[in-house]
TrEMBL record:
InterPro entries: Cys_Synth/Cystath_Beta-Synth, TrpB-like_PALP, TrpB-like_PALP_sf. SUPFAM superfamilies: Tryptophan synthase beta subunit-like PLP-dependent enzymes (SSF53686). The keyword Protease does not apply. Keywords: Pyridoxal phosphate. This is Cysteine synthase family protein. It comes from the Bacteria. Residues 12-310 form the Tryptophan synthase beta chain-like PALP domain. Its cofactor is pyridoxal 5'-phosphate.
Length: 331
């Protein structure tokens, strides 16, 4: 079925099949050609529509999700938006535990989308009862007829990207892709899309993007969960202070860590040079791509796909706001 041809029965039919756009200017000084998979074209404006819909459809099929059920989740905002949108269309209640690092824009959006929002401190260990992981678990336990999406530890998160994002990229590039650069949060995107692509061509390199302050890169390299790596950072949705099972570390060839400041500037540069208004982690992906280029990962024949996870509107009062940038000491 061609998307947008004829009538859609609901907004949910528009999830996925996002465009691949050639980057014209921002990667001009890097070796190879660069293409952006712009996930903001999903109806919920992020890649999280894919996993939210896949997990809910699966729960319905298995009979776990019954009429009038409540959907519970931990989320930096994007998954929450997708779940709230799907809950409205399908008639579920949606309760979200959100980290206080999430932008006010994102939190307001979730409320607009009819979700009940619980705000939890970001800088406490994952097993602390105040953490958004533990708060969501408690809500799930206390709420009858509820389903906990559990994106960090749900294999359907990887499967959603294995079944959609990966095949789309393979088809859109006519199999010419040589490298995938993707942000790693839950790890669902990079693991699912990466696994599919490597199955088509094992030579494709899967390049991860992690945040300075997160444990993922070190864990990938050493197998060690090193708490010395953990530091507060500003980028939402990137990196982790725990090891999610939704990340398949074997699929990922290498990680680069990026800073809050350089990622913010890269996102702003993306707007100025390409007219692409994307989120903070899209800036992180651009920044990591520059770092990978400096590490000689690419040559003139490289065909590099970058995944841009969400839309810039969610960061209007953060990286796109000069006062916020000044407050962080970035400007
Ligand atoms: N960017 C943003 C803005 C996100 O919200 C997320 C998800 N936490 C990611 C990137 C990372 O995607 P994934 O969870 O699939 O690794």
């Amino acid at each position: 079925m061609i998307k947008n041809k004829g009538i859609n029965n609901s907004i949910l039919e528009l999830v996925g099949e996002t465009p691949l756009i050639k980057l014209q200017r921002i990667t001009k000084n890097l070796k190879g050609s660069y293409f952006a998979k712009v996930e903001a074209f999903n109806p919920g404006h992020s890649s999280k529509d894919r996993i939210a819909l896949h997990i809910i459809n699966n729960a319905e099929k298995k009979g776990i999700l019954k009429k009038g059920a409540t959907i519970v989740e931990t989320t930096s905002g994007n998954t929450g938006f997708s779940l709230a949108m799907i809950s409205i269309v399908k008639g579920y209640k949606c309760i979200l535990a959100v980290s206080d690092k999430s932008s006010q824009d994102k939190i307001d959006l979730l409320k607009t989308m009819g979700a009940e929002v619980h705000i939890c401190p970001a800088n406490v260990p994952a097993d602390d009862p105040r953490s958004y992981y533990e708060v969501a678990k408690t809500i799930h336990k206390k709420t009858k007829n509820s389903v906990y999406i559990n994106q960090y530890f749900n294999e359907l998160n990887i499967e959603a990207h294995y079944k959609t994002t990966g095949p789309e990229i393979w088809e859109q590039t006519a199999g010419k892709i040589t490298h995938l650069v993707a942000a790693s949060g839950t790890g669902g995107t990079i693991s699912g899309a990466g696994k599919y692509l490597k199955e088509q061509n094992p030579d494709i390199k899967i390049l991860g993007v992690d945040a300075i302050g997160s444990v993922l890169k070190k864990f990938h390299e050493t197998g060690e969960f090193d708490t010395n790596e953990i530091k507060p950072y500003k980028i939402e949705g990137l990196g982790k202070t725990l090891i999610p099972t939704a990340t398949d570390f074997d699929v990922i060839d290498i990680y680069e860590k990026v800073s809050d400041k350089e990622s913010a500037f890269a996102a702003r540069e993306l707007v100025k040079k390409e007219g692409l208004f994307c989120g903070y982690t899209s800036g992180a992906v651009i920044q990591a791509t520059k770092q990978y280029n400096a590490l000689n990962m690419f040559n003139k024949n490289s065909f590099v796909v970058l995944i841009f996870p969400d839309h810039g509107s969610r960061y209007q009062n953060k990286i796109y706001n000069d006062s916020w940038m000044k407050k962080q000491g970035f400007l």
